[in-house]
Design goal:
- The chain is globular and about 75 Å long.
- The longest helix has 27 residues.
- It has 537 residues and is an all-alpha fold.
- Helices cover 68% and strands 0% of the residues.
- The chain has a domain of 68 residues.
- 48% of the residues are buried.
Length: 537
């Protein structure tokens, strides 16, 4: 084929930005070396902790610090055997962490290895380990994917995003604000951040092209703002609702279990804490991005392709009139959302509500999707099952509580340690751990139990420390490997690694300051932060 027969790339064609057409991000040389070292390193870590290294605080465990379930296990097994199961739990957890961070093998395969290891070492009974695949949060994840598939299959989500851009996107600033609104609204309905990124990516790539940002050598500050702020909003919007991601749901389940509630963590309780904070952080991200780091020149604030935004108008028009299936999909999801928001009144769990919504969505003649239309990422669910099984192992052995007790004793923390020291230590560890951990679920599994154990050890309300930590789960945007949306949007080539790190790490610090202010103000007003112990204002 001669060069003149090669079709010219059309930067305003949304079809050119489908995920399957984007170049796959290659691992850097450092990441490849990590992957090669990960397998042998995980084996060495496992054997050293299991057979060689003596961990003092696991050799002689004080039964008085154990939770109820672990204390019963201690009595049943005896001190020596209980210590052995804790050592095995630590070895499995540490080696799994190595595999997850280095990505030496697929994450779902690591989870399968975790599950069988917990069974073979006797840490978790076989029935309990396998039962985690049927955990209510697992079911809620599956059902949420069914519900989200309605909005994708019927194109209701795409229509809403296009309509909003066409209706309100009259200038560079209004376009950036439009995506803020779109991301927050979609976060209420779509629990997978990767799905939101996939829906929005073709739209904001066309918008970026209209303003002269086509990636590669044609980067500009409008494109940097548009893509990096969308990445930030996709994640922070998910944090506004407990159903925004599986990691939020897991945190809610861990906290509800520690509080010994006989019900789920309430949707409204999470939203009244998280939604205002998310909105403040999103607007701070807009200001820092577009007014400080990537200030728009006069040229960058103006469309560079004449009639470019008209292409989006044509794209919306080409979708035709609103279809019955779209109306049904939105109606089903609004009903589900209304039931979630009012769960404290009717007492029906979020999982049961999602069950009802999914059944209606799949009903022949009434629903809007068939099973083959549903996109359920089973590899992610298997990964989650492994994480939940680790959680069951933690509950059985009480390893986080034991480790927290030993760590704080070693650091010299006494019973009189001020609340604000614990608050800063836990929230700082949680938010900056996102620079290392790839998985939100893994960070949740590590840091929420630690926050719970810390609160119990020092006699503070569990919610005063566990909730602030949980509200930081979705801060996974600073570097391309921090989350799947970050990896996906990095390959658009609209910004560099330096751009991402500069904006992302700044927002981590800003968000840490915000959670500190939030703990002293809004959380205290709602009764979560103990009065008179924070001491900052």
């Amino acid at each position: 084929m001669t060069e003149k027969n090669i079709p010219e790339f059309d930067p305003l064609d949304m079809g050119n930005y489908r995920v399957d057409k984007l170049p796959k991000r290659e691992k850097s040389g450092f990441e490849k070396k990590l992957a090669l070292l990960g397998g042998p390193l995980a084996v060495i870590v496992f054997l050293l902790l299991l057979l060689v290294i003596k961990v003092p605080f696991l050799e002689n465990i004080d039964p008085d610090i154990l939770g109820k379930r672990a204390a019963e296990r201690y009595r049943d097994l005896g001190a020596i055997e209980f210590s052995r199961t804790n050592i095995a739990m630590l070895a499995i957890f540490a080696s799994a962490l190595v595999l997850w961070i280095t990505e030496a093998i697929p994450n779902y395969l690591t989870s399968l290895m975790v599950i069988i290891s917990l069974v073979l070492t006797g840490v978790t009974p076989e029935k309990e380990a396998y039962a985690q695949l049927g955990h209510p949060v697992m079911w809620l994840n599956i059902l949420s994917f069914i519900l989200a598939s309605m909005l994708v299959k019927t194109a209701a989500a795409k229509r809403f995003a296009l309509w909003f851009i066409v209706r309100f996107g009259k200038s560079a600033t209004s376009l950036l604000f439009s995506f803020i609104a779109i991301n927050v609204v979609l976060s209420m309905f779509i629990s997978a951040t990767t799905a939101k990124a996939t829906i929005l990516l073709p739209i904001f790539m066309v918008v970026a092209a209209v303003f002269g940002a086509t990636g590669g050598d044609n980067k500009n500050n409008f494109g940097r703002n548009l893509v990096l702020q969308n990445l930030f909003q996709i994640n922070i919007g998910a944090g506004a609702f407990i159903t925004g991601s599986g990691a939020n749901l897991l945190a809610g389940a861990l906290i509800a279990g520690a509080m010994m509630w006989d019900k789920d963590f309430e949707f409204y309780r999470w939203m009244e804490l998280a939604l205002p904070l998310a909105l403040i952080n999103i607007f701070l991200g807009w200001f820092i991005g577009s007014k400080i780091f990537f200030r728009l020149s006069k040229e960058e604030s103006m469309p560079q392709i004449e009639g470019g935004l008209e292409r989006l108008r044509h794209e919306l028009k080409a979708m035709g009139k609103v279809k019955t299936e779209e109306i049904k999909a939105v109606a089903i999801f609004l009903a589900v959302l209304a039931m979630w928001v009012t769960d404290s009144y009717h007492g029906v769990s979020k999982t049961a509500v999602a069950f009802l919504g999914a059944i209606v969505a799949l009903l022949p003649g009434i629903g809007v999707v068939k099973w083959n239309d549903v996109d359920i990422p089973w590899h992610l669910l298997l990964f989650s099952a492994g994480a939940y099984t680790l959680g069951a192992g933690f509950k059985t052995t009480d390893l986080p509580n034991i480790a927290v007790d030993a760590a704080f004793d070693a650091l010299g923390f006494s019973d009189s340690t001020p609340f604000w020291v614990l608050f800063l230590t836990l929230t700082g560890s949680m938010i900056f751990s996102s620079l290392v951990f790839q998985s939100k679920t893994m960070r949740t599994l590590v840091f929420v139990p630690i926050a719970i154990g810390t609160a119990q050890k020092f006699g503070f309300p569990i919610l005063s420390l566990a909730l602030p930590v949980a509200l930081l789960i979705e801060h996974v945007y600073a570097l391309p490997f921090n989350s799947k949306p970050a990896a996906l949007l990095y390959v658009t080539d609209q910004y560099s690694m330096t751009d991402s790190a500069k904006f992302g790490i700044t927002m981590l610090f800003v968000s840490w300051v915000m959670i500190i202010i939030w703990g002293e103000t809004w959380m205290r007003l709602l009764g979560y932060t103990p009065n008179g112990v924070f001491g900052l204002f």
